Amino acid sequence: MKVPLAQPVMTEEMVEAAANALRNERLTMGESMFRFEEEFAAMCGVKHAVSVGSGTAAIQLSLLSAGLKANDTILTSSLSFVATTNAFVAFGGVPAFADVIESEYTIDPSKISVAAETKAIIPVHLYGHPCRMDEVNAIAEESSVLVLEDACQAHGAMYKGKRAGALGDIGCFSFYPTKNMHVGGDGGMVTTDDEEVANSVRKLRHCGRKGQYEHDAIGYTARLNSVNAAVGIEQLKMLEGWNEKRRAVAAKYHSKLKDIDGLRLPPRPSGDVIPVYHLYAITTERRDELKAHLDGAGVQTGVHYEIPIHLQPIYRQMFGYAEGMLPVTERLCRQVLTLPIFPDMTDDQTAYVCEKMSEFFG
Ligand SMILES: Cc1ncc(COP(=O)(O)O)c(C=O)c1O
After folding, report:
1. Which among 59, 60, 76, 81 is the best mutation to test ligand 1's pocket, defined by most ligand atoms within 8 Å of the CB?
2. What are the backbone angles phi and psi of residue 55, rounded to the nearest 5°?
3. So what's the pLDDT on residue 340?
4. What is the pLDDT of residue 206?
């Protein structure tokens, strides 16, 4: 049996919606883009959703819109995709990192230290698991810094009755093809209740336009194409059901793997936190051996992430970071392995992965 790590869905309805947008709409700034934004805002429970060309653009344009600038410090976790920080290092922002909670993989509020130069905190809902937002928001409020959720892996996740994307000042999403929902290519979304931020992101994604031929900001070309938005509308209809199926796969993993010694499983849903299992991340000291065993049995796995952001070559070079700075994050990067999870994963596939895991651990 072969089990892929992820399996992006593209139904006939999605293809039809894309073809319809190609035939009948403006190719950029078309009606699907505006409709997708409205429906995404409603899903998150926020006033504004502004679509952009990627998750990276979502983070970058929202930070710029909130007034962040070169030399401002932005604090986040290093256990993330490098785009979380690339988004602001690109305009001269300076990263600072807090270590993560080992069992939850998300930023540890007790390790957050806000310096005078710190102007924003980016909690990353890694693998679809919401951060401890009450604590993060309390710290941010005390020191008057912005909270931007990196919700690029957490479409539809919930924390204390609210959706990811509605838990801080701004939320940022990616629609990269392997995410819980995609747009048939690259795409991103900014969510916020702040009208000024929303309007600024609208301007910055559209070349800094004030009118058709007048520009009053240094903008970017970072719009979501109509064809992608049309696919996004169809994907969004499926999101809740897909997330439910992901949680069902995670529950099966949990029941079959929970008693294996030397294996730690990701957090389960609780009353307060409903994760969406973008990835099912386990940890073991024998990660590389386990990976080889599963690869050999046709089970595709991933390592998210093998290198924490602060130890990426360009970050070492630019900021002089070295090993030992974030012990929990660095340990997790040596131990984490992501198992296959996707909505249409069959019971046979889940059982097969668990059988190969049990075989490995004996
Ligand atoms: C946590 C996180 N942040 C940011 C991004 C950047 O998104 P994109 O690839 O759409 O630019 C991604 C996804 O790839 C991500 O997983």
Report:
1. 81
2. -65, -35
3. 98
4. 98
Distance CA 24, CA 47 (A): 28
In this prediction, residue 324 has a pLDDT band, given cuts at 50, 70 and 90, of very high
Cα 83 to averaged position of ligand 1 atoms, centre (Å): 6
Ligand 1 cavity residues, CB under 6 Å: 54-56, 80-81, 83-84, 124, 150, 152-153, 174, 176, 186, 188
Answer whether 312's CB lies under 8 Å from 82's CB. yes
The chain-wide mean pLDDT, for the chain, equals 98
CB 118 within 8 A of CB 74: yes
pLDDT band at 143 (very low <50, low <70, confident <90, very high): very high
At 111 the pLDDT is 98
What residue spans define the domains of the chain? 12-234, 239-361
Q: Which of 342, 332, 317 is nearest to 182 (CA)?
A: 342
The model's pTM is 0.98
Q: What is the reported pLDDT for 4?
A: 98
Q: What is the mean pLDDT of residues 121-148?
A: 98
For the domain made up of 239-361, give the CATH fold.
Answer: Aspartate Aminotransferase, domain 1 (3.90.1150)
pLDDT of residue 253: 98
| Same CATH fold assignment for domains 12-234 and 239-361 | no
Our separate counts of H helices and E strands in the chain read 11, 12
Q: Which residue, chain included where needed, has tokens 């889940």?
A: 350
User: Are 63 and 317 within 8 A, CB to CB?
Assistant: no
Architecture of domain 12-234: 3-Layer(aba) Sandwich (3.40)
Residue 315: which H helix or E strand, with range?
A: helix 313-319
DSSP 302: B
State residue 147's pLDDT score. 99
- Provide the sign of the torsion angle of the four alpha carbons 268, 121, 332, 6, taken in this order: positive
Residue 19's closest CA among 6, 29, 10, 9? 10
Q: Is the peptide bond before 253 cis (omega within 30 degrees of 0)?
A: no
Q: What angle do CA 321, 323, 326 make, to 5 degrees?
A: 90
Residue nearest to atom 12 of ligand 1 (CA): 152
